[in-house]
Amino acid sequence: MSTIHHHHLKVEFSGGLELLFGNQRVHTLSLPAVIPDSERPSPSPSPPNLKSTSHSTSESRSTDVTYLIHYLRTHLLTDRPELFVDGDSIRPGILVLINDTDWELEGEGAYELKNGDEIVFISTLHGG
């Protein structure tokens, strides 16, 4: 049986988001390179007449930012998930940087994580 490879990531929260993660700004994570079957988020249903570009649930899928968001919500979030996630994605008003680049330029949630990646979540919403 093959060894499970892991990606070591640095995840940082700022702009107030760190308060939702135990008031810890920087987290070092080790995630499997392939999403475990037991933790694979259920895919959104797609119309049957369109061929889905995502992998089916029976295939292994590389760990991506969507999985990272799911992992953070499930394992690290300590308070008020509605301030971090909206459905299966990040709520509007949170800037996500992948290695100092806006995630919109990297494919957003579909970006496949690589060993050594740095993901930064910055809240641009400031409450009073």
Structural account:
By secondary structure, this protein is mainly beta. The protein has one domain (6-36, 60-123): Ubiquitin-like (UB roll), CATH 3.10.20.30. 9% of the residues lie in helices and 26% in strands. It contains one helix and seven strands, in the order ββαβββββ. It has one helix spanning 65-76, and strands spanning 6-14, 26-32, 85-86, 89-90, 94-98, 101-102, 118-123. The strands form two sheets. A five-stranded mixed beta sheet has the order 2-1-7-5-6, with no helix packed on it. Strands 3-4 form a two-stranded antiparallel sheet. A hairpin with a 2-residue loop joins strand 3 and strand 4 (89-90). Residues 44-58 have low confidence and may be disordered. The modification 1-thioglycine is found at residue 128. Pathway: tRNA modification; 5-methoxycarbonylmethyl-2-thiouridine-tRNA biosynthesis. Residues 49-60 have a biased composition (Low complexity). There is a cross-link at residue 128 (Glycyl lysine isopeptide (Gly-Lys) (interchain with K-? in acceptor proteins)). Belongs to the URM1 family.
